[in-house]
Automatic annotation (TrEMBL):
This is Cyclopropane-fatty-acyl-phospholipid synthase. Keywords: Lipid metabolism, Methyltransferase, S-adenosyl-L-methionine, Transferase. InterPro entries: CFA/CMAS, CMAS, DUF7884, SAM-dependent_MTases_sf. Gene3D superfamilies: Vaccinia Virus protein VP39. It comes from the Bacteria. One of its GO terms (molecular function) is methyltransferase activity. The keyword Lipid metabolism applies. Residues 17-80 form the DUF7884 domain. Belongs to the CFA/CMAS family. PANTHER family: CYCLOPROPANE-FATTY-ACYL-PHOSPHOLIPID SYNTHASE. GO terms for biological process: lipid biosynthetic process; methylation. The keyword Thylakoid does not apply. CDD domains: AdoMet_MTases (cd02440). It comes from Clostridium acidisoli DSM 12555.
Length: 409
């Protein structure tokens, strides 16, 4: 650091003492702390006030919010930089270091200030307020916003997403003429694939206006009106009893909430025919969850307001309490980590368009969110399971084959 302020350097180094020194630090006036000649990334503090706020209380969310505001930035390998989040959550700052950061940090001459009132007033668009065009930039042509399924290491995103919906169709043993319900159908890939390739009558429900409009038009475009339809409807408002041969829910039950899970599983049970199958595809967290409180607060505030994750053991308990038989449980954790990396790469490649369709603040929020999720799936803090359930008949019989071979034909 050019001003050779040893006390300030010591305070900063204390914060990063447990991290691998494979990065450098740059300040708003161009001054730097160089830990290595070949940095994988550079942490850039663009505003002195933000610097003081972050460094006196370092946490995943303080860095995340500053990144969104552009008062803090990462140059270089963003994914590698995000691995710092776990170490920073354990840092304790002494009163002496805090005072040094507050006083000496102010002495670094100011060149730019991007922390304006206007920026502070910008609102982050919540999950379903973003345009379909924005999602298409990273989801790709399938518009499938859930974990893909990689049969081969080099499968591209489109292939892997089609693998996923087909894998689900095979697990459900879909047959021509059967009635399929997709709860939280997203942009409709599952219902259209099932109708086109398996000849079922597919019914999708969503509570997103944007998704509903998209699926309605896509069904017409694919000429599937006689086999496929979508409704703008909450799962609790679906009427009937024993209506559907098969039910699927992909990436929806995370929004239900723990208190409503008994109602959710009871409703699906009510709607399912005797001997019917229900596949629930959803994210869970480990019992030894290492996702920080700050990280959870970030996701709640900026991405998934109201979202809740449960452990897979609790989810299965809810299922059994609703009188389902658990027929098959498959973890796709590594598949989701790989999916998210592909989404991140797509979003970064389409940065300019993403900003055009939303805002730079939204782009940065989603970039941070998806990288964090990829790392959490990779570490095992969170996972994802496909759980196949059977509505037990009055007279017990087997309604699926004795082995799992049928899933992989």
């Amino acid at each position: 650091m050019k001003n050779n302020d040893s006390a300030l350097i010591e305070a900063i180094e204390h914060i990063f003492k447990q991290t691998e020194k494979n990065f450098n630090v740059e300040f708003w006036n161009g001054e730097t702390i160089n830990y290595t000649d070949s940095p994988k990334f550079t942490l850039k503090f663009n505003d002195k006030d933000a610097f003081k706020k972050i460094m006196t209380k370092p946490s995943a969310i303080s860095f995340a919010e500053a990144f969104i505001d552009k008062t803090f930035d990462i140059e270089g390998d963003v994914i590698n930089a995000l691995t710092l989040k776990d170490q920073l959550n354990d840092v304790e700052i002494s009163n002496s270091d805090k005072l040094t950061l507050l006083l000496k940090g102010t002495s670094i001459k100011e060149a730019i200030n991007m922390h304006t009132k206007e920026k502070d007033k910008e609102n982050i668009a919540h999950h379903y307020d973003i345009s379909n065009d924005f999602y298409r930039l990273f989801l790709g042509s399938t518009m499938t916003y859930s974990c893909a399924y990689f049969k081969n290491e080099d499968d591209d995103l489109t292939t892997a997403q089609e693998n996923k919906v087909d894998h689900i169709c095979k697990k459900l043993r879909l047959k021509p003429g059967e009635k399929l319900l997709d709860v939280g159908c997203g942009w409709g890939k599952m219902i259209m694939w099932a109708a086109k390739h398996y000849g079922v009558e597919a019914h999708g429900v969503t509570i997103s206006e944007e998704q509903y409009k998209y699926v309605t038009e896509k069904i017409k475009e694919e000429k599937l009106e006689d086999k496929c339809f979508v409704e703008l409807k909450d799962y609790r408002d679906i009427e009937g009893e024993g209506v559907y041969d098969k039910i699927v829910s992909i990436g929806m039950f995370e929004h239900v909430g723990k208190k409503n899970l008994p109602l959710y599983f009871d409703d699906m049970f009510r709607l399912l025919k005797e001997d019917g199958l229900f596949l629930n595809h959803g994210i869970t967290h480990s019992k030894k969850l290492v996702v920080s409180k700050e990280e959870s607060e970030f996701i709640e505030k900026y991405i998934f307001p109201g979202g809740e994750l449960q452990t897979v053991s609790d989810v299965i308990t809810f299922m059994e309490d609703a009188n389902y038989e658990v027929c098959d449980v498959e973890s796709l954790r590594e598949h989701y980590s790989k999916t998210l990396v592909l989404w991140v790469n797509n979003l970064m490649k389409n940065k300019d368009k993403a900003i055009e369709y939303s805002s730079e603040r939204t782009y940065r929020t989603w970039l941070l969110y998806m990288i964090g999720c990829a790392l959490n799936f990779h570490s095992g803090s969170i996972s994802i399971y496909q759980i196949l359930l059977s509505k037990s008949p009055k007279k017990p019989i087997y309604n699926i084959p004795l082995t799992r071979e049928y899933m992989y034909k």
